[in-house]
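Structure in, sequence out. Go:
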């Protein structure tokens, strides 16, 4: 998988990268190359991070023998110092969401089924890919079958010299692969390639690269050496070689053995391995150290490593420890690491512990720890548990915590819990503290959630709570919010609730606000809501006021509205009342009012119960003064719902809402209409009886007409029957009908000059979402409720929509259709029509027609283009040109008037 990014919008271009990828592909892929052509994939200037991630994952899934991933481009660091690989749209000011995290590359590489994994990074800070930047023997002893080659150290910048065809590092890599390494064998391994590249870069005073070889992969043959020239040995050499092989290896000097191994390696590699194997069995340990060191220095690593298992399986542990001590004294690091790696892979648990103890006695504590750590990280769970139990109860107890910490940091989450559960059962001291500390400090929230799940399932709830506590003290609100989301995904709602409640009780106000904001950001709206309710219950009014104030600053208005909407929809009556009371006491009038208003639209029983709790708390929302003045500020639908709910438990309060004193006719008519639609028939009858008793005949007649206009004919007849007993009412009604005038509007749904309007025939319209639009944007544009769009399209939190998505927009409120002027007949493209000017004004107001276009009565090309845009967005186009239909329809005419009411 070869990836290159050469052109950037916000960073300096790297034109040389454009040539890197095809040149490397030509060398690495083909009949005589390491990879078949059909198994090679390349990406140059990929558009998105997802494209890169998917390509690497696909390569990792399909690889069976060797997986190689190469990247050339800018390397960027985020605010935590993590490496990201830049793409054309990457920005240094926003690294984390515009570049590819190296972790996205590492994970599929770690999970691939390929036995050999190679990563080559030609970018700045490339050594950050090594994870831990130390070069100690502990790091070198890790075994996971990966070889990493990086152009620059973890704090260094890679070089792309101006005017050169390739970048500095890749140029030398291409030269080495294409020209070969003189004097080397027929096949080049990655170690030889790297040393040659590093030498050439040093000679040109260019940045020094780094490599990391785990599991000895660097010594595996990788590509043919194009500079190799086979040399036939002389007849004397052939005779000497046969003489050495026939005689015992005890009689040859170290230099002779190395020479013969070199000659045999080119012609009879199996025989070379046999020679080294025999020497390792019969020579003294003091002679083996210089022999092995000389083999590694001469480049004969393969036959040496092939023979080392014989040494480990046939020699006592003390001799192996002595050999490692000698190699350390000779500074033969490569050979020493090879012996340690094979010890990790081959030795049983008891021998590994004995070897580590012998190394500590010789003063090689670091090597002993490397051996134990490598064993615990790479062997199966059963062997690793046995090792750690022996460490905890044996003479190497001092190494237990460091090995356990490495296991907790680096093994998979399932392995960690499988390893630590037996240790917890054995009651080994400090095991619980160590596990919680490491998990909280080093593991991701997803890993921590998986471990907590396992602990809770096995009955270790105390240890799970301990992880919560450490996470809260060291990782902060964002991590805990991610942990809550991960626990919820694992169906551990109780554990997630425990973490949430601990945060609300223990954190300061600012941290709680950030915690709630992050819960919203990760889509945990229910937990964010519960955290808000817990805060209202657990903290003082002053603290709650501070928390809500911080929260308002942290999240966008839309997210705040969504949280309040969720509170109104999901809270129990007592919770909703408690939130309203606390918010009101904290000075948060807007949020308190929103929850109160939206809760009224829950089922009547729920709303009535909430009102009862508010009345018991002495809330201002139910004070006589507040209720008496609501009719001046609230829409009739809210008043009707409130009145019906009050009638159930607080009937004396509902009378304040239904008072007809000093109210004009059209407001009373609207109130009766809303009560009927809220199924408050008894209340509407009560209002009508009061009208019949207290109003004059003229006002009663006007109310009958107003009710008929609102299609409430039953109420009109009821009032007419009540009032007809009075002398003169029939005449007053007749006079009023003859002199009927349109009522003054009280609410925006009823426009002025109603006689020129008619109800729209369309209750819904389809709309195609534009890029970067939100539900709130669409609701404001159409002047409709956001909740109506959410319910109509069954959208769930976090209410995510995407460009091109088709939404159904309700064009009515509270089941009332909006009013529009009649649709003009014969209004068509190319015609002159009196209503074209009105159409153009509507198109301008809705944003479809440029404001600079002069208005006229001609339905010209620009008007046609604007109408075509309207039809395309609302799926109104008709054959033959569905996406470019310039004809205005009745539905399009109604939509334009609906948009004129929006913002």
């Amino acid at each position: 998988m070869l990836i290159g990014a050469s052109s950037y919008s916000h960073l300096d271009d790297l034109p040389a990268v454009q040539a890197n990828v095809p040149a490397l592909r030509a060398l690495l892929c083909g009949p005589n190359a390491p990879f078949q052509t059909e198994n090679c994939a390349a990406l140059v200037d990929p558009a998105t991070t997802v494209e890169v991630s998917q390509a690497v994952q696909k390569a990792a899934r399909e690889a069976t023998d060797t997986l190689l991933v190469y990247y050339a481009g800018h390397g960027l660091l985020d605010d935590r110092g993590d490496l990201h690989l830049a793409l054309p749209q990457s920005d240094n000011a926003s690294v984390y969401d515009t570049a590819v995290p190296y972790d996205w590359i590492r994970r599929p590489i770690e999970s691939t089924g390929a036995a050999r994994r190679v990563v080559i990074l030609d970018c700045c800070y490339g050594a950050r890919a090594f994870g831990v930047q130390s070069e100690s023997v502990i790091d070198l002893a890790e075994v996971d079958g990966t070889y990493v080659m990086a152009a620059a150290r973890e704090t260094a910048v890679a070089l792309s010299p101006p005017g050169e065809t390739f970048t500095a590092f890749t140029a030398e890599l291409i030269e080495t692969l294409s020209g070969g390494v003189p004097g080397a064998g027929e096949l080049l391994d990655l170690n030889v390639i790297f040393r040659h590249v590093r030498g050439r870069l040093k000679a040109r005073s260019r940045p020094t690269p780094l490599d990391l070889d785990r599991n000895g992969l660097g010594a595996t043959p990788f590509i043919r050496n194009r500079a190799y020239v086979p040399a036939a040995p002389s007849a004397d050499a052939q005779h000497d070689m046969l003489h050495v092989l026939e005689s015992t290896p005890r009689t040859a000097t170290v230099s002779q053995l190395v020479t013969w191994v070199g000659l045999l390696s080119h012609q009879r590699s199996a025989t070379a391995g046999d020679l080294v194997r025999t020497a390792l069995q019969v020579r003294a340990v003091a002679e083996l150290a210089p022999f092995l060191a000389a083999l590694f220095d001469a480049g004969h690593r393969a036959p040496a490593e092939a023979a080392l298992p014989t040494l480990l399986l046939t020699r006592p542990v003390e001799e192996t420890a002595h050999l490692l001590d000698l190699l350390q004294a000779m500074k033969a690091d490569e050979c020493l690491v090879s012996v340690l790696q094979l010890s990790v892979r081959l030795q049983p648990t008891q021998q590994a512990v004995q070897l580590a103890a012998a190394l500590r006695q010789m003063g090689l504590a670091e090597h002993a720890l490397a051996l134990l750590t490598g064993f615990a990280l790479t062997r199966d769970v059963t062997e690793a548990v046995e090792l750690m139990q022996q460490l905890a109860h044996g003479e190497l107890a001092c190494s237990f915590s460091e090995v356990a910490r490495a296991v907790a940091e680096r093994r998979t989450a399932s392995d960690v819990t499988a390893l630590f559960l037996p240790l917890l059962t054995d009651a080994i001291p400090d095991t619980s503290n160590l596990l919680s500390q490491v998990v909280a400090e080093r593991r991701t929230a997803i890993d921590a959630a998986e471990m907590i799940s396992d602990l809770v399932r096995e009955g270790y709830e105390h240890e799970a709570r301990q992880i919560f506590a450490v996470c809260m003290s060291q990782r902060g609100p964002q991590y805990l919010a991610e942990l809550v989301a991960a626990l919820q995904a694992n169906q551990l709602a109780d554990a997630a609730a425990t973490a949430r409640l601990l945060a609300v009780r223990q954190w300061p106000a600012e941290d709680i606000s950030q915690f709630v904001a992050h819960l919203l950001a990760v889509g945990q709206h229910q937990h964010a809501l519960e955290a808000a309710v817990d805060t209202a219950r657990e903290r003082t009014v002053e603290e709650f006021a501070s928390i809500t104030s911080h929260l308002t600053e942290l999240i966008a208005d839309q997210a705040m509205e969504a949280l309040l909407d969720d509170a109104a929809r999901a809270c129990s009556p007592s919770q909703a009342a408690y939130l309203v009371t606390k918010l009101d006491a904290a000075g948060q009038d807007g949020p308190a009012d929103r929850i109160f208003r939206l809760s009224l639209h829950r089922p009547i029983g729920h709303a009535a119960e909430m009102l009862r709790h508010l009345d018991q708390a002495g809330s201002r929302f139910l004070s006589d003064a507040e209720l008496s003045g609501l009719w001046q500020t609230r829409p009739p639908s809210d008043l009707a719902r409130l009145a019906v709910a009050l009638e159930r438990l607080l009937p004396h309060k509902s009378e304040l809402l239904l008072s007809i004193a000093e109210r004009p006719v059209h407001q009373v008519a609207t109130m009766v209409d809303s009560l009927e639609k809220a199924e408050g028939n008894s209340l509407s009858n009560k209002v009508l009886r009061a009208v019949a008793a207290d109003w004059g005949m003229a006002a009663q007649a006007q109310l009958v007409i107003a009710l008929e206009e609102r299609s409430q004919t039953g109420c009109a007849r009821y009032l007419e029957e009540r009032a007809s007993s009075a002398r003169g009412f029939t005449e007053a009604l007749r006079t009023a009908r003859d002199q009927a005038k349109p009522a003054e509007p009280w609410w925006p749904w009823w426009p002025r000059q109603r006689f020129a309007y008619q109800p729209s025939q369309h209750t819904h319209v389809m709309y195609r979402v534009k890029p970067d639009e939100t539900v709130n944007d669409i609701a404001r544009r159409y002047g409709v409720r956001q909740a109506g769009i959410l319910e109509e399209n069954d959208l769930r939190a976090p209410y995510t929509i995407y460009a091109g998505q088709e939404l159904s927009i309700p064009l009515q409120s509270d089941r009332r259709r909006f009013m529009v002027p009649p649709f003009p007949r014969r209004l068509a493209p190319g015609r002159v029509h009196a209503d074209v000017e009105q159409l153009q004004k509507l198109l301008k107001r809705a944003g479809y027609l440029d404001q600079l276009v002069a208005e006229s009565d001609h339905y010209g090309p620009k008007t046609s283009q604007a109408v075509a845009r309207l039809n395309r967005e609302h799926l109104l186009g008709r054959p033959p040109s569905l996406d470019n239909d310039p004809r205005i329809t009745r539905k399009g005419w109604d939509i334009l008037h609906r948009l004129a009411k929006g913002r």
